[in-house]
Queue: 3 jobs
Job 1
Amino acid sequence: MDEHTTKANVRIHWPGLRLPVTVLLDDPAPCRNPAWYEFPEQGNVAVVPNSFTEEFADLVDRTGAAGKFSVVPCPGAQGRIDEGMPGISDEEMAGFLRLVRERIAPRWDISPEMLTHNKALDLATMQPLPEREDVWAARQDERILTPYIARWSRTASPRPGPSGRRWKRSTRGRSRPRCARSAACAWAGTSCTWTPTRRSCRPA
């Protein structure tokens, strides 16, 4: 354990007598292995059951671990996690998002990992572009990248973590539809406003 002693003979310890460590956990995708989308020829395991994410949440509870947990908003460019994904039931998706929101987000910052962690998306058509996101992004400027990254940052972040801004929760409008398109809504279980004209959901 590192200790520091000042000139006044005051000894300083790390919090909890443990060295603080921040964990950066990249690329989780709901119920699927991102490598399965990215490298289909390698025979990677496809399914990551919610029980695996639950075991991770148990580890967080036991150890007090904290850091950054990223959620891919449009895994493999196959669809959006707030509208449902091919091969993933609404129940599975809602279960994953509930685990992230209720068990992980209280101690971890939740952030997107670009949009697909695979092929870049044409935002006008929602179709994959020929290039990978990292290759495509390296040639773009702020004017292009800002709306691209911001497009579904809320989708990937069911609720900002402890160091991020939290949306105001409200009981206002409980009788209104709350992103009723799918049980997989990233805001399911929180109070939000459904805007049919914009086909979007936003926190209240």
Job 2
Amino acid sequence: MHLHHLRLIAFGILLVFAVILGSWIEQRWRRFKFQRRTERGRRAERDADEILEREGFSILERQASSLMKYTVDGEEQEAEVRADCIVAKEGVEYIAEIKSGTDAPNLSHAPTRRQLLEYALAFNNTRLLLVDMEAEEIREIEFPALRNFNRIPWRSLLRYLMVAFLVGALAGGFLVHRLLQSSAKRVKVRHLRRPGATLQSRPAVDNFSS
């Protein structure tokens, strides 16, 4: 009986030790995977810089962030959206996303597609680049539904300017007309109050008084 108890205690100690060891190994493995993923991401960013610069792009900002506002049941909320980098070429700015692996660099990969759409909305810029680190290629992405998203509606703006010009011209013409009428009335009043007109009325007054 005593030996049986000792075996149970030993088994319990081994079980606790196995749990602690397993937890420690899991934490170390997660840390290793995180460090490996971070290092791979940094290496990919360095390689991406070389690819972008080789194609004539200049890097303006890395890990660029922007706030995207939205409403939930009428309540306004916001979320931070972070892109890999903002680049420029010939005066045009692009939002660039760096992807590596087998699925992520493809636009058929739903998370990548949604991520680029979110960038377009958050940064108010539909000029998107997908940097494929496996093929070492840069792909310019365009969503036809967003073609007019960040363009100025010149036709509508011109129409509004024309209407504003006509309204201003009519208001200005009416104001000038009123000013001319007011000026004409003042000239007429001055003409009636001339000294000659006053002198002609005096004899009638004198005859009446005599």
Job 3
Amino acid sequence: MKIYRNILLTIIFLTATAAFTSLLAQTSIPKAQPTGKLKGVVVDPGDAVVVYARIVIEGKNFKRKVKTNEAGEYEVALPIGQYEIFAEMDGFHSSKRRKLCVVENKIIERNFTLEGVRQDVDHP
């Protein structure tokens, strides 16, 4: 009786393994989405780097924020497509929005200068 049970369990295991392998073979694995890179530097009106400035990148159904590093630099990989980008930092006026097109395997450089120190009451 024990032998029949082991044979039955082996048959079930082999059938399940074959079905799973067949299912895996039919499932398409998505390719990695092609990307390009965006990088740059954010400075103030005196050309001093702005540490931890926010870079806002917006596209169709897409929004990402990254921060500059201790050298005022940023770098981000993005899916290919059309975007608007701007830089902002507390105490400064936001930069102008710029349009750009990210192309596969290309590096786009966009530098920003944040203008003037904000002194309005509503500014954080």
